[in-house]
Fold this protein.
Amino acid sequence: QVPLSESGGGSVQAGGSLKLACTASTHYYCMGWFRQAPGKEREGIAGILTFGTLTYYADSVKGRFTISRDATRTTVFLHMNSTIPDDTAMYYCAAQSPKQATCGTWQAYNQWGQGTQVTVSS
């Protein structure tokens, strides 16, 4: 069974919005979103403590993207607003299993989804 499954990627014009969703096959204390653009390293951009409300953001998306979860705590969302062409990347859902650090410690994530492509055109 795939531990994490993403949906919602696609194309959007710069300045537009997109919403990604990730459903987990089990409960994780920390879930997050990463992205990787062609020729660049994968970067952690948003994390959430699912048994609470703590959220963490990379500077590159702070103020534009919001991570949230649903009541089941097994689905998290990434609300992407004010998108820019540099947001173009493959977006991956991730989780810590077991929880090893804060949800903003990107190196601690070790469970991955298969990714969903987001393309922002200018």
